[in-house]
User: Fold these one by one.
Assistant:
Number 1:
Amino acid sequence: MKVTEIRGHHVGFAPSPAIGNARTMIRRRDFLLLEIVTDTGKRGWGEVFSSPDAAAALIRTRYAPLLLGQPPRRYRALWEHMAANLGYDRRGPAMMAISAIDMALCDLAAQDLGISVAAMLGGGLRERVFAYGSGPFIAETDAPCAHYAAEVERCLAQGYRAMKPRAGVGPRADGNMLASMRRQVGPDVGLMVDINQAYSVRAAIASARHMEASELLWIEEPVEPEDIPGYAAVAAAISTAVAGGEALASAAAFRDVLVAGAMSILQPDLTVCGGYTGFMRIAALAAAFDLPIMPHVFGTIVNHQAALQVAALLPARRGGGPASYPYVEVDISSNPLLALQGDVRPNADGTLDIPDLPGTGLDLDAERLEPWRRESWVCR
Ligand SMILES: [Mg+2]
């Protein structure tokens, strides 16, 4: 099996109404879906969710020539070759480009072996993984969280037993919102919050104290991702676990966080951290510090399917929630690119089945992307 074509599909949509977090209102969601095609006709998929246009430029100009004609089963050697060609900055869009390529190459390498990615990477530890609903999101109104109760009711009816609303409107408002959500869901549903990098250290600590009685499993991205001392100060001052890492693009970045004692739950995103190859390095680091990993996912079905594969591989840890960690994040907003193979819904026990099929078990035809396509290109 050899790579014969690299196809980029730029897809996106405008959430209506816009969905918000404490930092920004999301009016447009754009992705690069990377399809690597081989001489056997098999295709592998990768994704970039954060900087799709910049990553695409790097793939087309710099990496495609390195990949064409290569066997996907050399994915580790190709990862090293691409990383060595990055030059100075091994984070940001350049690592996102490598991430998408590694995702697609591993998908193909596993298909070539006739096994799942999890099986190729050593074999899964579980057949199902606990899912949590990522949302509800802040609305662009005078009462930004007034719709939360109805959305939470909808999620409970869909089978979710853990939810992560967006917070960060203000410390006291956060406390009031979580207290009313805890009353609504009862003691046995897992609740966590995402601050999306918005608070100062002082405001994050104040917010955490207002929310403490609601018994959250974690507080996510309380401050800016580069502010490791700030993270450490928040972590030292509050009793709730601090989570983060979706914006970190290397094992070295996670090493700095861990050495500083700045997070107690790590959330690498396959489309940011170097694909499966980068993710497994971070997983080894997390194991050395005995900290749980929750794969971060906020994109299309491609990243969702890939996250299920790595979730199969992570050791179980009791974090105080309704099930042992890891949990997999599921975007509960209206997201047609997550629903490309039908709506993602948990089982009655709040879990998702992990496919044990060649690759990631994703059978995606590029024609399905047509309604959301903005642009496409091919390197051959
Ligand atoms: Mg987040």
Note: The chain has two domains: 3-114+361-379, 119-353.
Number 2:
Amino acid sequence: MAGPIPDLEERATRCARRLCAADRVLLASHIDADGLTSAAIAAKALERAGIPFETVFEKQLDADAIAAIAATDYDTVYFTDFGSGQLDIIGDHEDAGDFTPVIADHHQPATIDGDGEPSRADTEYHLNPLLFGIDGAAELSGAGASYVLARALADVADGSDAAVAADGSGVDTAPARSDNRDLAALAVVGAVGDMQASGGELHGANAKIVDEGVDAGVLETGKDLALYGKQTRPLPKLLEYATDVHIPGISNDERGALRFLDGLDLELKRDGEWRRWSGLTNEEKRTVASALVKRAVSSGVPPKKIDQLVGTAYVLSEEPVGTELRDASEFSTLLNATARYERADVGLGVCLGDRGAALERARTLLCDHRRNLSEGIDLVTREGVTEETNVQWFHAGDRIRETIVGIVAGMAMGNEGISRSKPIVAFAEKSESELKVSARGTHGLVRRGLDLSAVMSEASRAVEGDGGGHDVAAGATVPKGKETEFIERVDEIVGEQLS
Ligand SMILES: [Mn+2]
């Protein structure tokens, strides 16, 4: 776990040398928290190495997007948080002499070409933990891969004296020959955003990045309450909205959460404002945490669940206390909000240190996002769902954005009239001719055999669509007008899985 990972780092050095040899680089990245932090890490590293670059973002790196990239006059394209899954198409462009790809990704590499022929297994400048026996789903994210390359780039650029441009441009006040370890904080935000923290903490190659960030003074870690919103949520909301571990009389219970806090010997408000977890003293934190555990025990929450109330917190020590930027989890949520509304420029700006307009815009987007979610949940709850034998579904049309309809569906489960004993399927308009489908289940249903990834992939193929995902949450794109045929097939497959 600790110590260098020789093969991965050797490959990173090879990629770094290629980037340093380029006159200029087109940086292409995925739009989500991991993709945005990947791009920010890459951008900082290129800037510090004195390599001119331009950044583009794509929601999906499909053949059209790659063709558009190939049509630019860049000879070197650096892909972050995607590219491995498109190795076949990218390889064709490389063979045609369109550009040389450098890839830092953690997704499954494509091994079969579109025409069914096995494609090249690898390309020369391809950095992916999966090629070196490291779990790309749990141990290194796109931002992590981008960070490993950034560290190599600092070494290579330092050795080749490329760090200072001849006219001194591009050199900021930061030390020009930084070793890029300060970028570990963003790598951790990306990993947390890609849900790589399991059992309350990061593991493997991710843990090594955490160690480097702590050494560099940009990260602090420690055991803390594992609730979302420790920096920004007022105490009662922190407790009320924490539903991963359901504590009767507190979770989802506004008055209950208030009563619980009132019962503690604690100063709850200061200057008329609710205090936040991040502003409590260690002793005050202990008071709340132990009362919370006591309440969980006395109301019959299973010990395994109670353990989940505590986890490792990743704190960005250079960010101000009480802001979402200080907590890796809140930071990644803020970035995801910019990504969902296609404002990658805003998310990237925040990652690169814009604490003015970009941060303000990101906060507004997050606020709008939360309002859209709550309006969506109200809409679904009010209008109800259609029951089939094995699933329930609703059609939001254009009234809920396709980018959030899945979250809305999942959150609406358990509301009045929306059962948690059947998976829920949601349709929303994606384009003139296509519908986005999102399906959500519960872990209980998965234990009984539900695999929504298989359901979405099989049922969408039956109507000439395309789909996939995870067992508990999956999605598809299907042609408009095929809803009935599609849902019948979904109902059948789910019935088979749960029988
Ligand atoms: Mn990723």
Note: Residues 384-498 form a domain with the Diaminopimelate Epimerase; Chain A, domain 1 fold (CATH 3.10.310.40).
